[in-house]
Design a protein that fits this description.
With about 375 residues, the protein is an all-alpha fold. It is built from 19 helices and no strands.
Length: about 375
């Protein structure tokens, strides 16, 4: 299967890139050593680019893969190119559509999807290389958490999510203006990204994952009252008010995704016991978002298109889980945890993508260039 093969190749290339990477402190001060430093790092860089290029090219050459590929091809893209300002496409993505169409000399839409995939992978690569302590495992989670498949469908939102993951790196570095600027950029692709501005306050609070888990049954009991409040806020802020009461407001959700989120919180509670409190607090921002995700599980039946809400936050696992695993000092326990996550994600991927084909990414077809 192409997505599995893609993941294996990408992970192997990124592992090899770090094998060849060297620093000045690791070599002797002679000309031969510096030559090895330069050539080794050049090879490392090429392998790293190859790793992310693998993730890019699969999404770039797809044809009629992903639910929104068809939707964009028959509705959004033609309307934007016709100058229809009423179609719901944010300003910066309108420019992506126009540039992509011009690159094809007006013959097809494929370059629009190529540009889209490039932007997603570009910011995802920046986020992983800047923040992840185990890049290969981050790439594995990127694909097997099904976010990669989601990105082939919810394209504008996926761009904004990838930018958010990169922007989040500046929170720990205490550069709020960079974070805010990047989130505003993300909102020009998908205005739902503005919610990430509110998430900045999560840097200053401490959610207890155990309390978040306990809250889920209670939230399910008061869901009807919560829905009224959410509808009022949506109408006041004009954030997709048409979704409530519309065709997407079915009250249905995918149980496997709910189980996955709750199970991740349970596992993180266990991991917390295996690492130092300092290491736990270093990841506080993403831990708080996982807590928020858990709370949202108690409100799935009252939120339209709940999977899109989940995927707006779920990708924090791409950075959070590898970083927490890296902090487990006992090597044997660390290996057991890694194997456990591989089994969990493989099962999740099988259920969501191979068996149920969420987001319409199978069968895979290639564009005939």
């Amino acid at each position: 299967m192409i997505y599995v093969i893609m993941t294996v190749i990408s992970c192997l290339l990124i592992i090899l890139s770090y094998f060849f990477h060297s620093t000045k402190s690791e070599i002797n001060s002679n000309s031969n050593s510096y030559f090895l430093l330069i050539t080794g790092n050049m090879l490392s860089g090429i392998l790293m680019l190859g790793s992310y290029f693998t993730l890019f090219i699969v999404g770039a050459v797809r044809y009629m893969v992903g639910i929104d590929y068809i939707t964009y091809s028959v509705y959004q893209i033609p309307h934007v190119l016709a100058g229809d300002v009423s179609v719901k496409v944010e300003s910066l993505y309108r420019e992506v559509i126009k540039i992509g169409f011009s690159l094809s000399k007006g013959t097809n839409y494929q370059y629009i999807f190529i540009l889209t995939q490039f932007i997603i992978i570009f910011f995802m690569a920046l986020a992983i290389e800047k923040s992840s302590k185990i890049s290969a495992f981050s790439i594995f989670i990127f694909v097997f958490s099904t976010f990669y498949a989601f990105s082939l469908s919810g394209m504008r939102q996926s761009i904004s999510i990838a930018i958010f993951l990169y922007a989040a790196t500046f929170i720990e570095e205490k550069y709020p203006y960079k974070y805010i600027s990047l989130i505003l950029l993300a909102s020009l692709f998908h205005k739902f990204a503005l919610i990430y501005l509110v998430l900045y306050v999560f840097k200053y609070i401490k959610l207890n994952l155990i309390y978040c888990l306990v809250s889920v049954p209670g939230l399910l009991l008061i869901s009807s009252s919560l829905r009224k409040i959410i509808v009022i806020i949506s109408n006041k802020l004009n954030i997709y008010p048409e979704y409530f009461g519309g065709v997407f407001d079915t009250g249905s959700y995918k149980t496997v995704q709910m189980v996955y989120i709750i199970l991740i919180s349970v596992i993180l509670v266990i991991i917390q016991k295996l690492i130092t409190s300092e290491s736990w607090e270093e990841n506080r921002f993403f831990i708080n978002i996982q807590g928020l995700l858990t709370i949202i599980m108690g409100m799935l039946t009252i939120i339209p298109t709940p999977s899109r809400i989940m995927y707006a936050l779920l990708p924090v696992h791409i950075i959070l889980i590898p970083n927490l695993i890296k902090e487990i000092k006992n090597k044997n326990i660390r290996i057991i945890v890694i194997v456990g996550f591989i089994i969990l994600y493989s099962l999740f991927f099988y259920i969501c993508i191979i068996k149920n084909n969420f987001y319409g990414t199978l069968p895979f077809r290639m564009w005939n260039f």
